Amino acid sequence: MRVSTNIQFDAGLRAMTTQQSEIARLSQQISGERKVLNPGDDPIAAAREVTLTATKAAYEQMIKNQGDVNDSLKQIENTLDTAREAIGTFRTKLIALNSGALNDADRASHIKDMESLRDQLISVANQSDGNGNFLFSGYAAKTQPFVADGAGQIAYNGDIGVREVQIGPTRTMAANMTGDYLFMSVPTGNGKVEGTATSTNTGSGYMKNVSVTDNAAWKAAEAAGPYSVEFVSTTTGTTTNGIAVNQTVTDPAAWGKAAANKPFSLEFTDATTYTLTDGKGVTSTGTYTPGAPLTINGMQMNFGTDPAAGDKFAIGDVAGKYQVSNGAGAVVGTGTIDPAKGGSVTFAGITLDVSGVPNAGDTFTFKQPGTADIFASMQAAIDAAKIPAADAANGATQRNNVLREMMANIDGGLNRLLDATTTLGSRQDELDALTGQDTVSRDNVSAQITKEVGMGTQDLVAAISELAQRNLSLQAAQKVYAQVSNMSLFNII
């Protein structure tokens, strides 16, 4: 059998082409560390790769989302730390002002610092993320959240939208906090009860502290509020001849107006006529109807026995007597505190500690806490602090009452930011845990992909060895082909 030169050429070319194709395939497998280069190589493994690759991409997206949310929460946390520091310093200044130990010059210095701290807090609350997005504007990220109106009051221009981000297959997480929640909707009082002093109070009594001492009792009673504690200065005494008399303030406004002329003394010249002398020595006369109460300057006097000529009575505040009324106006409690030492008023699970001496008609009101913005509370404290130390006693009392009330609101603002910081920390802990879990899951899926279509160490070694063999075979085929191509009859003639 004779083999033609063409057949030899074709055989040589096929051998070289085959080796080159295998070398190319092995080179791709080795460089990509993949044993399945095309779906046709292993259709089942290729299909599994598509599914696993999608799963891996989902994990990578969740990990990215978790990182983005974590970065946002850390920036918010750092900003709230700065806000808490400003409010805390403001609170320290407020304590010093409320102590009453500062003169006008010292108070002016503290007030100036407090005004700067309020401005600083507004600036912090308007913080952006560096990309032009305000941290606390909700969905309205491009809108400055806090702006002063014409009266200097701070208005919130953001919205209450909370941006939820997918951080797991079935889990979303809020990536922001709104300024309305953080700064504008702060619980008033101590978060359980809010106490306020009536602005028309004339005495030196002020609320030193208000607390809920029986949660169950207050919870059961709070719906019947608001409650008022009114000091009524009711007392029972006797005259020089033993006549009992009960005094009650029935018109606090009239009695308060007469405060500058106290004390008053009353002397009967006969059974129906009396002479009234005020603290400045000014006298006046009046008539009395036997058997009826006698009211002078808003103070009602009820005599146990009709007075006679020569009977004398002292009319004045006998501080400490109070009555508690509910929202319907019904008296639900009475009591007395020591006018010299102050004392505590307890009702419906609430304890009010009173300092100073309340005048008749002075009232304190208690109700379920509402909400207030921290900026308004700070401004109210600043305004109250501007009342001079040498002002009238009732002015100083109003200052003390407002400062105490605003102190409670400031504490509420600090607690709100502290709660928010705690929430941020919990979210970050969850994100760290999820990122760790999802990273492990992603790596496991990557390992599965490698197992299905990739090359392990042994596969890689085998492929490299085969590649070397194929290269040798190609070189041999090329050598044979070259030799055949150079063969000619002329070489042997």
Structure description:
The protein has 493 residues and is an alpha+beta fold. The chain has 3 domains: 53-190 and 392-441, f41 fragment of flagellin, N-terminal domain (Up-down Bundle), CATH 1.20.1330; 194-232 and 320-368, no CATH class; 235-315. It contains 9 helices and 22 strands. The chain has helices at 5-32, 43-98, 104-125, 179-184, 215-221, 252-257, 374-385, 393-453, 457-486, and strands at residues 146-148, 154-156, 164-168, 171-174, 186-187, 194-197, 206-212, 227-231, 235-238, 244-249, 264-268, 273-277, 283-287, 294-296, 299-303, 312-315, 321-325, 331-336, 343-347, 350-355, 363-367, 371-372. The strands form 7 sheets. The chain has a 5-stranded antiparallel sheet with strand order 6-21-8-17-18. Helix 3 (104-125) packs antiparallel against helix 7 (374-385). The chain is rod-shaped and about 160 Å long. The relative contact order is 0.17. The mean pLDDT is 82.
